[in-house]
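User: what does the whole thing look like in 3D?
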Amino acid sequence: MNTETDIKKKPNYLNPYFGGVLLGLLLLATFFIAGRGLSASGAVKLSLVTVVNKIAPEHAANNTYYSKFIPEDGSSIMFNWLVFGAIGTFFGGMLSGVLYGRMGKLRVEHSPKISKRTRIIAAAIGGLLFGMGSQFGRGCSSGAALSGTAALSFGGLLVMAFMFGIGYVVAYFVRKLWI
Amino acid sequence: MGPLIPNEIITGQWDFVIALLIGGAFGFILEASGFSSSRNIAGVFYGYNFVVLRVFFTGMIVAMVGLLYFSYMGWINIDLVFVLPTYLNSMLLGGFIMGLGFVIGGFCPGTSYTAAAIGKIDGIVFAGSTLVGIFLFAELFPLFEGFYYANNLGNITIGEMFGLSNEVIVFVFVVIAIVAFYVTWLIEKRVRKNMTEYKFE
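Assistant: Here's the predicted 3D structure for the full assembly of 380 residues, as structure tokens:
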């Protein structure tokens, strides 16, 4: 094995404990400022509600789920903390990618044992499941598992334990995707 | 004093500027820690890369201890910090489904945004599919509305659930995290020795 190219190829990530401390301080600052934690999936939910409300407003109003998120005073659904947070997350990730030289042209990252197509299908299934699961779970890994548990919510702990726990249970059966 | 927005120390349109900045810092930290790569993330399930556990657990205990400290110093009114309500049935199922999505897709929503941001098509597909997943959920919602709201325990904390103080709970989390850091470090060393196909990307 050519170790020299390996070292060159190894990307410049933060030390994970340092990254974790930064994440923790950010989460603490978010609690201090907003009284609530970080989020990610909420923005997708509100985008969906916006689209459905535009295309089929009656359907949205009659559906007990969509209508939960349509402000009664007619103000914008998208003018929301969650949406701005997610836009920030996208550009913050981009900034880091540019600074560390990981920003690149469109590409698919996958294990050498699977094809690009398989990886894309797996990503689509994973996203679909995460989308559904985050609604049942009242949040995804950011809102429920991380922020929920950090604020000592029992439900947050449940979501975190089940998310990682089931991941380990199923990992063996989908190992071909990764190793 | 804190939290600033619920106490109306910061008001009005500043909310969204702050949300944008906090989101930006969140995305930066996720990407810089290696979460824009699904292969780094999935390593937590196969023992070849525990970066998820390290970053996630460190972040969680720093925030937990920080909240206790802020509360003790009187800097934050802990009663105004949002405690995610617990809907037992629905959240167990949600965790279950997200666990499947996690190990199959290799991302969660936040990390998929950062992967999409640096040009990864699998990240774009994952993020797009979460929209489809939420759409399916919302369309089918009338079928399981009862289940969704069942067994509502309210905004219950872990301490209230087990009859322990927050301080004890946080201490237990810190101890578990430190043990987990050590054990996973040992596992990772062993697994990586026998692995040839994984390189950081």
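In plain terms: Chain B touches chain A through 134 residues (CB under 8 Å). Chain B has two domains: 1-80+165-196, 84-155.
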